[in-house]
Amino acid sequence: MLKKKWFRALFRQRILVALLIIVQAAFLVYAVISGSRLSGWLNGVLTVLSILVVLSLPRKEKGSYRTLWVILILSFPIFGGLLYLMVKSQGTTRKMRRQLQGILNRSRNLYTLPGSGYEEAKAQTGAYFPQIRYLQDFAGFPVYTDTRTTYFPLGEVMLEALLRELEKAEKYIFLEFFIIQEGKMWDSILDVLKRKAAQGVKVRVMYDDVGCFFLLPADYKKQLDAMGIECGIFNPFRPFLTVKQNNRDHRKILVIDGKVAFNGGINLADEYINAYEKYGHWKDTAVMVEGKAAWSFTLMFLEMWQLCTGVREDINAYYTPYSVPSDGFVLPYADSPMDRENVGEHVYLQILNQAQEYVYINTPYLIVDDGVLSALCLAAKRGVDVRIATPHIWDKWAVHMTTRSYYRELLRAGVKVYEYTNGFIHAKSFVCDDRIATVGTTNMDYRSLYLHFECGVWLYGSRAVTQAKEDYLATLPHCQPITEEDCKAGFFLRFLQEIFRLFAPLM
Length: 507
Known about the structure:
Elements: H1 2-33, H2 37-55, H3 63-75, H4 80-88, H5 91-107, H6 118-124, H7 129-138, E1 147-152, H8 155-167, E2 172-177, H9 184-198, E3 202-208, H10 220-226, E4 230-234, E5 252-256, E6 260-264, E7 281-283, E8 286-291, H11 294-309, E9 329-335, H12 343-354, E10 358-362, H13 370-381, E11 385-391, H14 397-405, H15 407-413, E12 416-420, E13 423-425, E14 429-432, E15 436-440, H16 446-451, E16 454-460, H17 463-475, E17 479-481, H18 491-502
Parallel strand pairs: 2-3, 3-4, 7-13, 10-11, 11-12
Antiparallel strand pairs: 1-8, 2-5, 5-6, 6-8, 9-16, 10-14, 12-17, 14-15, 15-16
Helix pairs in contact: 1-2, 2-3, 2-4, 3-4, 5-11, 6-7, 8-9, 12-13, 14-18
């Protein structure tokens, strides 16, 4: 009964938000088309504005993104230029960018508190060291030794390990997830969090407001606060036309005492542990990091917490020296839409460009620009065994059709494409040459690569690399190999796919 009550309240609130946005848009449309003197003046001004915007589109934008804006603006000259300025020139977004940069400037030198394994990596990783150099010297994320890793092939396997580690917490537990939903998974975690908070452990939970829009009560922060759990809501949804709502926190981080961290594609909802079937069997992956490298995930959380709450932290107070016997090289990294550095994309591109024998890829969506598409095809053409596994049971029809539109080009270049027939692959992972792998939150689509806050962990020579490869090969028998014959489609579907490809940067 209680759940029904809060759901009705949540539904009314969300509907009100949607109506307010529609009213704002309708008012602008009416002002332009009403036929009044004001309307004529607005039409002329907005058309000139659109022309000026097209001529001044920044060349550093992705080519497909610029092309889409040119088409939109010239197709709708009255509203196109204004829409672009609303999307790209908002004070709220600039304010967030300044706040985040200030936070990063204060914390950047703290990443190396545990000590970096840079020189050891330089001596031992050979042709793969340039990826480490880029991530540490340019992106600011150090590589660590004295760390071990464990790979989880399913959400239910990860949950067992996660609950065990939560019981060991002595100082703090930090959770940052795109989606949290009440149910078997979250309830089992929350039981431990409440108990630990009562014991004096600092417990913080941060979730994305859009990711949890229809999943949590509007007053859930108050509920957690009453349990002794600190709560932050990332970028709360506001009933205004603002591009800031596009920049979501898609990360999945859980840190315990700065010693152990979990990362991967798994959110805290029951479909992720196959407690119920949403789109068939849910295939996802994660990695547990123990040792020095867990500190990087602690810092990532604290940076976002400060951005989310506006409260400045004494980050040094959370650092506890901790190391375990080395399990290869481990490098956690993050990606932000608030700068021009597409870290997640560059990690994927460097793996493809450096691959010598094989690259095995899991991704729920495959909607990429020409650069990533060319890297996939070129790797296959030079003899690398490139395999991509995507879902057979889709969650969004238009997105799935767009993903399938890339199959023909990939297959003709020699890339092997598979669809997971048991259900939905939500994993985001690369494994390459028995040496390197990355597991994280970044999908191979425009939203993850360029608009969301994301994170992942890059691995060299660790046991998680071997585990990721074994899991991939064990999953292939449950997949359907795609052939060019499977890609044949009628004229109407092909036409739709081309339209979807054109508008892919907005998906």
